[in-house]
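If you are new to this repository, start here. Below is one unmodified record pulled from the training split, so you can see the exact layout before writing a loader.
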Amino acid sequence: MLAGLRRGDIRDYEVEEAGLGQSVAYHGPEHMTATVYMYDRRQAGLRDEGGRLAKAERDTALDDIAAFVRRGTYDGADLVSKGDYRPSRSPLVFASAWVRLVKNGMRSDSFVYVTVAQGKFLKIRITGPERAGNDAAADAFAGAVAQLVSN
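And here is the target side for that same chain:
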């Protein structure tokens, strides 16, 4: 368990294409899901003072969501907020975004957090049905991941 979500499968993308890394899935209550990705895009020993790389990766993730809308995977996606998230118990700073997704009339909240840690990109995507408190739950999960990676 990590911040109320139970760990699921681990996936190795390196076998498909070098630089794509690995991911770990997490599942929570009420259809909340999270995926934690670690990858380097074939750039060994990444460093990101100032967060420029993390912001670019976050924006790429937002572009991917927009592409899903164009392909019909989602009916719509509205950016709720975009900025930085600094977990209280970690030196990491995430470039973050909150997007409200719509599919078949159902609304979901999706959160993206990206930073550079241990020389790799650390990206977290958390999605669940729209409800009050999702932002705090997403921040708590990102903070818990940051603590694990920082130790």
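Two things worth knowing about this chain: The radius of gyration is 15 Å. The chain is about 25% helix and 40% strand.
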